[in-house]
Please model this.
Amino acid sequence: MRDIVLIPCYARPDYLWVCLEHIERSLRSNYRPALPLEVWVIQDRHEKPITPYLEAERLETPKVVAAFADKMNIRFTERQPHPYWGNPLNFLEAYKEAYATDARYVYLIEDDVLVAPDFFRWHECVQARGDYFVTVGWRCIRNKSVLPSNDPTAYIETTVDYSSIGVCWRRENLAAIVRHARPEYYKDLTGYTHQNFPNNPIPRNQWTEQAGLIMRELLQNKDSRTVAWPSLPRCAHVGAYGYHRPQGQRFPGSLKERVVALRQAFLDAGKLARMVHDPFKDIEPLPVVPDWKPEDLRVVQSLKWCGRIG
Model:
């Protein structure tokens, strides 16, 4: 048995480098995962031609993985080119591949997510406390009733929200998700989610990618599945550019120079904010987490369905 970390990525080798640095730091902290941990870097590919710039970045990705081969148990896979839009195929096929193993926990950390030193420790300790559908290391941003807190022992239970930013699943819980890993979904995200989640409170044309599909699973049988979130996040979303943010800032230069520039930007909230027009308000530096003891963890809020999302 083992734990698996999935890192779906697409032509952002500089982001991947800094993401892996933070994973390595978390694995070198004073807490070791109970089981061996494998890191799977899975690069997406599309049949549609990409720019020479993105093609050059795509070719740099296996070099990044090789640079970390002596630091962690890491492997690289590249998808066969496919005709589908966005990232749902890469995410769901990765989940399906991990579900077919003997893994205990399956983590998903995107290449534009930075994890705190206690990221794995927090997930393991919270997973051990309850029968959670999934634990999310980020902040619960849609629920306006969430109370802000810097307490590292406080966490929230909700049956009404999900985000794919720094998550951990008990492998068997992925059964509800991998059943949607099929071409019918990949080729028609809106039509598939509308047909397969009747009367779901999420509007037909909203959140149709993989995170929205999982959110629909959560809301289809209201209050039947519980998600745990930290009051003080254990990871940060720092994706200043990507296919949802094509106008975000990219740094010039060699891979090494771009990595150095990103490290500095990720430490500076103002600089990070200036790198992208951020209508979603979901980009911010990684918070500093004080020391805490597992026995002090406690639920400070429990949020149920109230007739609306948020």
